[in-house]
Amino acid sequence: MARYPLAAVSPRGRLRLLNGAHPCHRWRPLTSHQACWSARRKRFTIDTLTLLVGLAIFIGLAGIVIPVLPGSILIGVAVLVWAVAKGGIAWAVVAGVAVLLALGAASTYVITAKHTKAAGVPTKSLVGAGLAGIIGFFAIPVVGLVVGFPLGLFGMEYFRLRDLGRAKKSALGALKAVGLGMVLELGFALAAASLWLVAVNVWV
Asked: Which residues of the chain have pLDDT under 70?
């Protein structure tokens, strides 16, 4: 009985050679070109999916700092798509990522609301500042958001208080609250991204 070089498929979709086998043989004779093409196509698909998910996670992390881009939601959706394709332990990774992102969103909301309330800044001032930031983003790409939000917030507070000193103080307090919330959300999102990265390289 003829012996053919064999190869095993690891849980991560990578080929492990057995008995000096070529990666394309995958438990088939050397003349099986169909199996060879199937192995290459599968490997290409997995690598492409991982690359796209990683890119989406990177955009999500940037979106936390630049609110015009999607943030934590994009990270969660990207990892979910990855888990659907992978299955198995990937669903446990999705659960862990979801918990981390939920904690980030909840802590951001609570901390920001608490500090803005302490500073006496109403919600309508934050909404107005957000609109000013979006307009600034399109007027002066990227930089306009950083300039438009604080100027919009100060303008809303000055319009409300009619006092330059008080408006400046309340606007600074709100900006500190927003910045703290952003740092917290980014920290939890980075932890979620790290969990996915470990899963890609170790478990899945």
From this structure: 1-46, 68, 142, 203-204
Domain assignment present for 7:
no
Q: Are 158 and 167 in contact (CB under 8 A)?
A: yes
Instruction: Supply φ then ψ for residue 4, to 5 degrees.
Output: -110, 140
In a domain? residue 143: yes
Q: Are 58 and 70 in contact (CB under 8 A)?
A: no
Secondary structure element (H or E) that encloses residue 9, with its range: strand 6-9
Domain count, the chain: 1
Give the range of the structural domain holding residue 92, as residue numbers without chain letter: 47-203
Domain membership of residue 99 (yes or no) is yes
Select from 125, 114, 123 the least CA-distant residue to 166. 125
- Report the C-alpha gap between 60 and 65 in whole angstroms: 9
Question: What is the three-class DSSP state of 41?
Answer: helix
CB 136 within 8 A of CB 144: yes
The 10 Å CB-count burial string (b at 16+, else e) for 90-125 is beebbebbeebbebbbebbeebbeebbeebebeeeb
pLDDT in tens, 137-153: 788 876 777 788 888 88
Q: Number of H helices and number of E strands within the chain? A: 6, 2
As a whole number of angstroms, the distance between CA 76 and CA 188 comes to 12
| The overall pTM is greater than 0.85 | no
